[in-house]
Amino acid sequence: MDATTLGGHEGDDRHAALLNNAAAIRAVCSAVEGTLGPKGLDTMLVGGQGDVLITNDGVTILEKMDVSHPAARLLVQVARSQQSEVGDGTTTATVLAGAMVAEGAAMVIKGVPVAKVVAGIEEGTRIAAEYLTAIAHPIDGLDDPMLYQIAYIAGREHADLAQLVLQGARLIGWQRLADESFRFPDAVTALDKGQNEVYPGLFLARKPAAGFFDREEASGTGVLILMDALEPEKPADEALVTEAGFREYTASRERFRSELERLAELGIGLIAADRGVDAEAEQFCADRGIMVLPRLPRHDLLRLREFTGAVPLRRAALAKPAAELARALGRCRAVYDAPLGRVRISDGGGRSAVAVAVGGSTRELAGERTRIAADAAAAVQAAVRGGYVAGGGAAELAAARELERCRETVKGLEGFGIAVVAEALRRPLAQIVVNAGFNPLEKVEQAKAAGALGDSTSIAIDCDTGELIDMIQHHIIDPLTVKLHAVQTAGEVAAAVLRIRTVIKMRQDSEPSSH
Predict the structure, then answer these.
(1) Helices 414-425, 427-436: inter-axial angle, 10-degree rounding
(2) What are phi and psi of 488, to 5 degrees?
(3) Which residue in 198, 194, 205 sits closest to 172, CA to CA?
């Protein structure tokens, strides 16, 4: 078999791949861990064309980094999973995963079997998740002051963004926030030419087809969503060269005109299509005050469908009787806001929606502030669904103490894996302390001892003074769901990396292999 080992050593070093993978993961972690906590700093990302992005958003850094090492890419997947599932806590998840890999690799090098370390990590993350769930506090409605604190902390202490997100949350309501199918961060949008705004509806970043000007409103309230092009049926190209084919083409255009007339009679004010619009149809709609949004992205079409209550149709459905078409229509009010380059959609006939618009003096600034606000929105929604725990690394430190107690009762080698998770759970506090300019060994031990003495789950370090404080009493809190997902995904990636014994470069076949 022709193979190339990427571990850096030949077959006599059985830990070569593990050490190589652990080093790659450590390198990726070092790129984001400096952003953790209130004293974390920014990272500058420089593109090949000289473009620059300055951010301290963990997932943005990892997504934009040029990562080629296969094991390091697993760590990027952790951040993506954290962002996709809960929308916040990507840096914490990355730091935890990196720490678990480093500690797990150290155990394997000492001679503990990989299978035992992995089993202990899986058990340790399960115990930690159960413990964090047990110590969580519920949110008491959207007026609970703790909800603002969650938005403020996740929003990196931007008070205006925390207020903006909370205003949007109250507008959308508790029931909608608790809905598993609704993602509050998706409601956050950037306005590089506007001011902060919470709008009861949708902002669609699309210029209407010709005929609409600033603040002009569509004439009707009916909504047609077309998963097709708004154009007549096209005969085959070869048919157009025959007399019969040309007659059929002419007839198809006449049928299309009658279909457009039927749409106008139904009181349609907005047509959203995922493809293009025929020039004649564009002019017809403009003359009658019907707003047409061509080539609308699929995710915007789905949002519009949910908000307006419209049933998406294919092109052939336009030939149906008016009564049948009417049943598929949604309802909304559509206004084109030219200075913002957006269409405002309100008064929908479907489920409630909100647009949290974040302004900025430049596109880059608006983009960064939008990422921050999206994190705050995700944290608020996560807290509504699962409550909150102490922030600043306190909850993880308390979970580590619980794992140490459990470790004493484990007789097998799996206990070493549990110890790996316990050590990793102390890492977020240690990194927050480092970023604040204090000695992590001293401060973590102080917090650990104080928490054990008072059996507290919320003792950590004040990043301004270096003193011990109760995080709950000082309203420094994080959503439970963010912590749970970070611990679980970190454990999964650590187990996956530790199980890798050999890394082999695949052969590049020009044709599929035959078996």
Answers:
(1) 30
(2) -65, -45
(3) 198
Question: In residues, how long is the chain?
Answer: 515
Q: What is the mean pLDDT of residues 61-88?
A: 78
Mean pLDDT of 232-259: 74
Judge contact between 460 and 397, C-beta under 8 A.
yes
Q: Copy the structure tokens of residue 288.
A: 């009658």
Task: Read off the pLDDT band of 237 (50, 70, 90).
Answer: low
CA distance 187 to 201: 9
Neighbouring CB atoms inside 10 A of 129's CB total: 18
Residue among 495, 472, 507 at smallest CA distance from 101: 495
Instruction: Please say whether the structural domain 201-353 has been given the CATH code 3.60.150.10.
Output: no
Specify the amino acid at residue 487.
Answer: V
Q: Rounded distance, CA 398 to CA 455, Å? A: 9
DSSP assigned state of 187: G
Which structure tokens are listed for 38? 């209130």
Percent of the chain with pLDDT over 70: 94
CATH 1.20.950.20 fits 16-137+389-498, yes or no: no
Number of Cβ within 10 Å of residue 386's Cβ equals 20
Contact 491, 396 (CB under 8 A): no
The pLDDT of residue 12 is 41
Give dist(CA 170, CA 150) in Å, integer: 15
Helix axis angle for 414-425 and 480-498, nearest 10°, is 130
Q: How far apart are CA 421 and CA 97, in angstroms?
A: 10
- Please state the φ and ψ torsions of residue 469, each to the nearest 5 degrees: -140, 160
What mean pLDDT is reported for the chain?
87
> What residue type is 249 in one-letter code?
Y
Residue 46 burial by CB count (10 A; 0-12/13-18/19+): exposed, middle or buried?
A: exposed
pLDDT confidence of 7, banded at 50, 70, 90? very low
Considering only CA atoms, which of 358, 398, 394, 396 is closest in space to residue 469?
394
Edge-to-edge strand ranges of the sheet holding 268-273: 291-293, 268-273, 222-226, 330-331
Residue 193 · residue 339 · CB < 8 Å = yes
Neighbours of 317 (CB within 10 A): 17
Which amino acid appears at position 164 of this protein? Answer: L
CA–CA separation, 344 vs 444, rounded Å? 50
What would the pLDDT profile of 125-164 be if each residue is shown by its tens digit? 999 999 999 999 999 999 999 999 999 999 988 999 999 9
- Render 255-323 in DSSP notation, one character per residue: HHHHHHHHHHHTTEEEEEESS-B-HHHHHHHHHTT-EEETT--HHHHHHHHHHH-PPPB-GGGGGS-HH
Q: Where are the domains of the chain?
A: 16-137+389-498, 145-200+358-386, 201-353
Q: Collect all residues with Cβ–Cβ distance below 8 Å to 460 and sequence separation of at least 6.
A: 390, 391, 392, 393, 394, 397, 429, 432, 447, 468, 469, 471, 476
Beta bridge partners, 293, equal 272
The Cα 265–Cα 274 span in angstroms is 23
Cα–Cα nearest to 392, from 432, 447, 439, 440: 432
